[in-house]
């Protein structure tokens, strides 16, 4: 063991002092990739720049028991490193190159019998090392498929230690679970639990996804991050845990006040101890090297910090050995205080006027907190009535609302001007459905690939547009319909592109099955994270690079054309949207990071995009699933673009008067785009009573 003397090193060659029982996020960057930037959630507005020799261009495969498991970029030389003491333990070189997927440290290297595992990513084997061994031992587990070649679905990775057992998961979509009961130089004992991670995402908008597994509070959680587009934007996130009593995965909306830190090679959990730390959250870095936070409770995603390095080589989480200290520190005090508070809490609130409780507490809660509040005491149950379809959906207001799910099967409708919320129980027939598209007061909703409905939340009417059970490969990538689904000439379309093949499914109202049309397309047109516009009898699609395409369907004749003569007004953007406004086609482009917004109008006579400086009395609502314009319904809503983003409890909009982002509670103070949070799986809704 090599002791590198943490106290003797200059500050820039050792990690910053721990700021609580939370991991550091380490970005490796700079010329020669020898610089590191450290960040932690306990002090999110600060970073620390270091140049630690051990971390120069290294890959981290695991971080546990206060130690990190590193290799060089060639994956030949491996070592263990303690970020607090700076102790380093060199391990034997790996003589044969292997694709490595993940690693595992069984215990602190200071303990006898510490075992180190490397899971090979391209064939069924585990590289095994007990600390002190002179070389790695390759353990074969091809016996998992007796007499057959082991498929990729049986390549194991993602070790998770939970309640005294080591669990590993198979490589591809089903992520079958195995218990690694024993491993040594003589072999491995693996036991299948016959539990598979069946994908219950409502629509596969992309074949690209990330799946991570992590232990938290004695439970095993699986996180599925669905990505879409050429820049891999987050489309949806699903959190599930293993119910060992039923041997099944179940969807969850809470991770017991824990914070989860995700990585491609390993993941870490920490308890929410400090009051300033928001629990029930995920932190992860995407391919754009930006750090994101996802709230499991309200299903929204936000950019955490814009001040991290813009072009790092890689990033990883480092967990110092402070969890035992954090878990015991003041725990008895916390439990004792909590018990006393429970005794006196209800008596205290009974002394407050009911209108104060309603205005200062109840009306400020989101749906999940509202439902939890009703379970605490009789006083709150009397002041917070059960969720019902509230009158705000029945008062014939035509103001647009954002619809999303704060809790499964309960829709939230949010009115942007007054920040008014109302709720609606989703009919049982639509249980588990997600939003695909919205138009003319109707939502197109799906549950998996084979259940496809149109729903009017005002009238409660549900239409099963056509039978989809025979179309097993129906991919709801980019969805739209031409007119109200009650209209006899309504046509619904889903379209996707894989490699150079475009697949179009369409059905007219009253059809008994979908029609499939396949078109070869070797262009670089790719569908963006937006919805189509039915305009002048054809569907228009705005591609991710700002190019425009037309889909025309007459009877069973399908025509697809990319308008290459029409140049994109923006070479690159974070998001773009297409919308019809006052008889014109508008494109809306949101900048990559600074959140700048530009609007253009299509001149069909000249086939050019013309910049728009003012929307007049119109307001525009944009989201991935629905974008439309309407005349402003209330003073102050005109000349604005409303996004499915929140700052605090208020919708964020872009004003073409100020060219800044604002919310109605702070119209005079601009909002920085990166600090707003995006609501996932939502859609704008324009009330229609027909």
Automatic annotation (TrEMBL):
Q: Specify the domain of life of the species encoding this protein.
A: Eukaryota
Which residue range or ranges hold the KIB1-4 beta-propeller domain?
45-292, 414-644
- Protein name per the record: KIB1-4 beta-propeller domain-containing protein
Organism field: Ricinus communis
Q: What is the lineage of its organism?
A: Eukaryota, Viridiplantae, Streptophyta, Embryophyta, Tracheophyta
